[in-house]
Amino acid sequence: MNPIFRLLLTVLMLFGATGILSAQEPPLERRLDLELKDASLDDALNAIMKETSALFLYKSNEINLSGPFTISVRNATVAEVLDIIIADKDVTYSASGNQIILKKKSQASEVAPQ
Q1: What value, to the nearest 5°, has the Cα angle with vertex 43 and ends 40 and 47?
Q2: Is 27:51 a contact under the CB 8 Å cutoff?
């Protein structure tokens, strides 16, 4: 086998394995650096998605995405970042697969009638 082809194949396999391993990490445990100034919640969620490939699901008419807020974190988990940026909002979150679901706290605590 051609040595250059073998090297290229090895590099591709390493990048592929790295992507597979990071995709298996739960989205709330993924780590990121984030620095935003006078940002909205929407700005923060977009930055988190870009850094971690996690997907956010929420009803835009129920979740207030306005700001502004400032955040600066290094090597923080997504859960730690979310705790900071939604601390003063009526919002909670949970994860399912690669998705992070945002809900109003009042809806998340409601119990279905029996």
Answers
A1: 145
A2: no
For the stretch 50-55, contacts whose Cβ atoms lie closer than 8 Å and that sit 24 or more positions apart, written own/partner, are 52/27, 52/78, 53/22, 53/23, 53/98, 54/27, 54/30, 54/78, 54/98, 54/99, 54/100, 55/27, 55/98, 55/99, 55/100
| Model pLDDT for residues 63-79, shown as the tens digit of each residue | 887 778 899 999 999 99
How many Å apart are CA 84 and CA 30, to the nearest integer? 16
pLDDT tens, the chain, 114 aa long: 666 656 666 666 665 544 544 457 999 999 999 999 999 888 999 999 999 999 999 988 888 877 788 999 999 999 999 999 998 888 999 999 999 999 998 765 554 454
Query: Computed from CA positions of residues 51, 55, 101, 37, in that sequence, does the dihedral angle turn out positive or negative?
Result: positive
How far apart, in whole angstroms, are the C-alpha atoms of residue 20 and residue 47? 21
